Structure formats: C-alpha cells, structure tokens
Amino acid sequence: MTLRLGDTVPNFTQASSEGEINFYDWAGDSWVVLFSHPKDYTPVCTTELGAVARLKSEFDKRGVKTIALSVDDVDSHMGWIKDIEETQNVTLNYPILADGDRKVSDIYDMIHPNSLNNLTIRTVFVIDPEKKLRLSITYPASTGRNFNEILRVIDSLQLTDNYSVATPVDWKDGDDCVIVPSITDPAELAEKFPKGYTPIKPYLRMTPQPNK
C-alpha cells in the first residue's frame, strides 16, 4: 500500500531486538520516528543507528520514541548491535524490528524493487500520537540521513499543531514564524499574536514564535 500524509498508519506485531512489539501498544500516546535500513552490517546504517542513540535525550524532550527496521532476523540484529555500540561509542537504546518476512516493509511500502531488489530503502516516517503519518522522507541507500533535520521538522509539527502559524524556510526552534493566511480579522490577530507581527505582504506576516 502507499501511505500518504494524514493517513492512519497500519498496526503490526513483529519481532524485534527488544522482544515482540505490537506497534500501536508500543507507541502509546507518543510521537514515533520509524526508520528503515536495507540490511544489517551495512556501513551507513551503522552510523545512523549510533546517531539516533546519541540523540535520545532530544527525542525524549519532544515526547518521541524511535524504532528502526531491517529485513534481517533478531539474531543478526543482536550481533550488529554489538558492532554499532563498539564503533559508534553508544549504547543502543531503542528496538530494531526484525522484518524477515517483509510484512512491515510491504504495508509501509518500503520495498522499491528498482532501487534495491527485495531490500528496504532508507525511509523515515514521523507518526503522531493519533497514529497519523505526518512526514515521510526516502533517501537512496548511499546517503545517510540527517536526524537533526528530523528533529527540526518535529519541532515545526508540534508547534504548528497548537498555534496558527507555519514555519518558513530554514526555520529552527526560536525563530520567527509565518501567520497562516486564513487569519485576517484584526481582533483575532491581536488575541493570537500579542507579541505583534510584521506585515511584509498581505499574505506574508512574520511573528515571534508564539510559545517562546
């Protein structure tokens, strides 16, 4: 199946490096970053898994759980985890799904045969507490992901879910935001944006980040 933004992601039960996981139960009311890897013992993935482990405190601050996926089995994962911890100087602090039967890969459309025959591509899914897909990014196997960018997008999603703003190009937490064009009433603008705003064009109005 093809997952699109706003879709409810499918549930699954699958083995992992931390035991059997029912995805919905495991996720609970947290945000989730689910990211896939072509296979175990691959160099780029090894660096990525280490980077996510080092960023745990940043994900925790945002109420985000992380979970990886590879098509190899649990025994293979356990051996690979030792390599990750040794080479990346981390303790792996999140599960790796063992998707040997490609069940999760298929329902999340992670198999792109013209890219990698029968292996998962390098995909990231950001899923909100309502189990809605909020972001998907697909990378080629040769390119490692930037997880600081994933954190930046989560900051934007969590901000814009609660305030009538959008985030402009290269925005990062603390920067000015864009007021959504649908708000035009002066009284509503004054109520929602007590710090004021700068009109650049009628449709482009900048305001300090509302929750800072």
Automatic annotation (TrEMBL):
This is Peroxidase. It comes from the Bacteria. Belongs to the peroxiredoxin family. AhpC/Prx1 subfamily. It comes from Phormidium nigroviride PCC 7112. It is an enzyme of class 1 (oxidoreductase). The active site is at 45 (cysteine sulfenic acid (-soh) intermediate). Pfam families: 1-cysPrx_C (PF10417), AhpC-TSA (PF00578). One of its GO terms (biological process) is cell redox homeostasis. One of its GO terms (cellular component) is cytosol. Its EC number is 1.11.1.7. The keyword Oxidoreductase applies. PANTHER family: MCG48959-RELATED, PEROXIREDOXIN-6. Keywords: Antioxidant, Oxidoreductase, Peroxidase, Redox-active center. GO terms for molecular function: lactoperoxidase activity; peroxiredoxin activity. Residues 3-159 form the Thioredoxin domain. The keyword RNA-binding does not apply. InterPro entries: AhpC/TSA, Peroxiredoxin_AhpC-typ, Peroxiredoxin_C, PRX_1cys, Thioredoxin-like_sf, Thioredoxin_domain. The lineage of its organism: Bacteria, Bacillati, Cyanobacteriota, Cyanophyceae, Oscillatoriophycideae.
